[in-house]
Amino acid sequence: xxxxxxxxxxxxxxxxxxxxxxxxxxxxxxxxxxxxxxxxxxxxxxxxxxxxxxxxxxxxxxxxxxxxxxxxxxxxxxxxxxxxxxxxxxxxxxxxxxxxxxxxxxxxxxxxxxxxxxxxxxxxxxxxxxxxxxxxxxxxxxxxxxxxxxxxxxxxxxxxxxxxxxxxxxxxxxxxxxxxxxxxxxxxxxxxxxxxxxxxxxxxxxxxxxxxxxxxxxxxxxxxxxxxxxx
Length: 231
Known about the structure:
The protein has one helix at 67-78, and strands at residues 5-7, 10-11, 17-22, 30-35, 44-51, 54-62, 84-88, 94-100, 106-108, 114-122, 126-128, 135-137, 142-146, 155-159, 162-166, 169-173, 179-183, 188-191, 194-195, 200-202, 210-217, 221-225, 229-230. By secondary structure, it is mainly beta. Strands 1, 2, 3, 6, 7, 8, 9, 10, 11 and 23 form a 10-stranded antiparallel beta sheet that branches. The protein has a 6-stranded antiparallel beta sheet with strand order 12-22-14-17-18-19, with no helix packed on it. The longest helix has 12 residues, at 67-78.
């Protein structure tokens, strides 16, 4: 079986392009400020509570040096500057959010094949596919289990008005038209293109490793997309 990469929903195999290797064991750097204090041995490390972006590299090859396929694949990589979902056959249960920012260069050894490397700038998280499944909560006191070692910042759709508490963080919605979406990653409330921050008070919650108890009142139900990830 040939290995492949799917970028923005399009597989490299669609262009007869396959993966020879990737830097799959690379990990992002922790964002830490190092401070040297006169008279104090060693250094102080101030953790900023975040990870840096990581370089994602794929060594690709095409068995038949098809100019048309290479040009089409290149156009797909370069058609936007934003982050795209990236999945591959090495880790089919995970995906990255990455953007193509490097030059595109193909080395042709002969008329029959070509090899080239693509480099992308990816967010530090390796998201679990299962973390995109919506969990419906219809009764207060339900629990959700985070299978990773990292706090996740979910997307919560709350129907109606009310308040919720998750791991000590309480958030209330005072006005809503059917539902309100709460993006705990960017800490924004909205419905479609309408900003609803003015209707929300309190703290956006996180889902810690292990069991998380969700209590709420007023809402008819909550729909939680947990966005589980590892590093």
